[in-house]
From TrEMBL:
<protein>
    <recommendedName>
        <fullName>rhizopuspepsin</fullName>
        <ecNumber>3.4.23.21</ecNumber>
    </recommendedName>
</protein>
<dbReference type="GO" id="GO:0004190">
    <property type="term" value="F:aspartic-type endopeptidase activity"/>
</dbReference>
<dbReference type="InterPro" id="IPR021109">
    <property type="entry name" value="Peptidase_aspartic_dom_sf"/>
</dbReference>
<keyword id="KW-0865">Zymogen</keyword>
<comment type="similarity">
    <text>Belongs to the peptidase A1 family.</text>
</comment>
<feature type="signal peptide">
    <location>
        <begin position="1"/>
        <end position="22"/>
    </location>
</feature>
<feature type="domain" description="Peptidase A1">
    <location>
        <begin position="79"/>
        <end position="433"/>
    </location>
</feature>
<dbReference type="InterPro" id="IPR001461">
    <property type="entry name" value="Aspartic_peptidase_A1"/>
</dbReference>
<dbReference type="InterPro" id="IPR033121">
    <property type="entry name" value="PEPTIDASE_A1"/>
</dbReference>
<keyword id="KW-0645">Protease</keyword>
<dbReference type="Pfam" id="PF00026">
    <property type="entry name" value="Asp"/>
</dbReference>
<dbReference type="GO" id="GO:0006508">
    <property type="term" value="P:proteolysis"/>
</dbReference>
<feature type="disulfide bond">
    <location>
        <begin position="110"/>
        <end position="115"/>
    </location>
</feature>
<dbReference type="InterPro" id="IPR001969">
    <property type="entry name" value="Aspartic_peptidase_AS"/>
</dbReference>
<feature type="active site">
    <location>
        <position position="97"/>
    </location>
</feature>
<feature type="active site">
    <location>
        <position position="280"/>
    </location>
</feature>
<keyword id="KW-0378">Hydrolase</keyword>
Length: 440
């Protein structure tokens, strides 16, 4: 995940290794519910899903062998993990991406000069590799691409071994990929999001081969000031990584990890409500609608919308988290659009309210947060953490961790850095809890 400082108008966002464009709006609203996951041993998930069991049995003690490190680099802009393909194993830095379903790696023989900066997969030395029957290619919304050969081989993620995993061997790729640090992508969305939906995703294989105690994985991405290494856990939930109980919400639309957000606030200002969201480890920011982006930045001191760099903020954490002030061009700092004003009335009538610990706007101090209401619980992102990389042409300013342009919101690593997320493949739901910054 990174901000491409060469892009104009808006901050460019990498989603699953490529710069993204706005995605279509999601599906209709669904009912949400909550359950608590105490630490208890698990029996095999397949029979439990078939015959049913209490939700109180759905958590297991954390087992380190199921943890896969997620290395934080470029100041929280990207996380990569080490996986291997083939026999004997060939190791690569990949993005474990919940926003896509294709799995691929740069191949030996890629003629692009910058491929030489990457580890490349050599199929000729793998005894388990099988050729596919067709070429492989994936093209993303901004016309970035990768392609080459298709095949199957063994994939190892941590202590997990997946045989006959479908794999794209990239013989060519656009600069968004070749200029990046990662060598490929492992897609963790549902197979319908794949360039070839007939191919099984790694999670499909893990579930089908009964390799997990539970058909889920969970993500812990601590901010860099806390730790440089996060983790994915497959088949288990690590209760040492979060506070309180997990709050679950069913998916509103596959093939993405998408749900309905009840409401979003900054301080006491309602930003939007009843919004379709997806959780994406391959996006570094909070990607929202243009209206929501403006409503959020109107509450942040010194925030500006520029033609060349999109929304920018003072780099000082203390400045952006202090009491709001008016933006250039706004009549008052409290100004929001008529549509957002009506949303505030609707939200109030439906008992949506920001966290009671937050004061009114005139009293807001360093605890200013963006709040996301999910199943009656609020999950926060501190405004002090929004400044990203410095804007070279504007000393003292950084790119904002909130960007507009998407009717369907995307909660990227900016959200995950502050909230533990469970991706429950078997029950088709997401779980959330506030992150714990240490195991103590």
């Amino acid at each position: 995940m990174r901000v491409d400082l060469q892009c104009a108008v808006f901050v460019c966002l990498v989603v699953g290794g490529r710069i993204t464009t706005a995605l279509p709006a999601g599906a209709s609203a669904t009912i949400v519910y909550t359950d608590t996951l105490p630490n208890t041993p698990l029996s095999r998930w397949k029979s439990q899903l078939r015959y049913g069991r209490p939700d109180s049995l759905r958590n297991s003690p954390f087992q380190s062998k199921e943890a896969v490190e997620a290395i934080n680099f470029r100041s929280d802009l990207e996380y990569y993990s080490a996986v291997s393909f083939g026999t004997p194993p060939q190791t690569f830095k990949v993005m474990l991406d919940t926003g896509s379903a294709d799995t691929w790696v740069i191949a030996r023989g890629c003629p692009t000069s910058k491929c030489a900066n990457h580890a490349t997969f050599d199929k000729t030395i793998s005894t388990t590799y099988r050729n596919g029957s067709s070429d492989w290619q994936v093209t993303y919304g901004d016309h970035s691409f990768a392609g080459g050969l298709s095949g199957w081989d063994t994939l190892r993620i941590g202590a997990l071994t997946i045989t006959n995993q479908s794999l794209g061997l990239a013989m060519y790729a656009s600069p968004q990929f070749t200029n990046d640090m990662v060598d490929g992508i492992v897609g963790l969305s549902f197979r319908g999001a794949s360039n070839n939906p007939d191919n099984q995703t790694p999670m499909d294989r893990l579930v089908e081969d009964h390799l997990l105690p539970e058909p889920l994985f969970a993500v812990y991405f601590p901010p860099r000031q806390v730790a440089s290494v996060g983790e994915f856990t497959f088949g288990t939930v690590n209760s040492a990584r979060y506070h309180g109980d997990l709050v679950y919400v069913p998916l509103s639309r596959k093939p993405y990890w998408q749900f309905e957000l009840e409401a979003a606030y900054i301080g006491n200002t309602v930003v939007d409500q009843r919004v379709q969201c997806m959780v994406d480890t391959g996006t570094n920011v909070l990607l929202v609608s243009n209206e929501a982006a403006r409503a959020i930045h109107l509450q942040i001191p010194g925030a500006r919308e520029t033609h060349s760099d999109g929304w920018i903020l003072p780099c000082s954490r203390s400045t952006v988290s202090a009491a709001p002030s008016a933006l250039p061009g706004a009549n008052e700092s409290t100004t929001v659009s008529p549509a957002l004003s009506s949303m505030a009335l609707i939200a109030k009538s439906q008992s949506f309210s920001p966290d009671s610990t937050h004061a009114r706007r005139s009293d807001l101090g360093p605890a200013l947060t963006i709040q996301f209401s999910i199943n009656g619980h609020n999950f926060t992102v501190p405004v002090a953490g929004l400044p990203l990389e410095p804007v070279k042409s504007r000393p003292g300013f950084c790119y904002s961790g909130v960007a507009g342009g998407s009717p369907r919101w995307i909660l990227g690593t900016m959200f995950i850095k502050h909230n533990y997320v469970v991706f429950d493949h078997g029950r088709e739901r997401l779980g959330f809890a506030p992150i714990r910054h240490s195991s103590s």
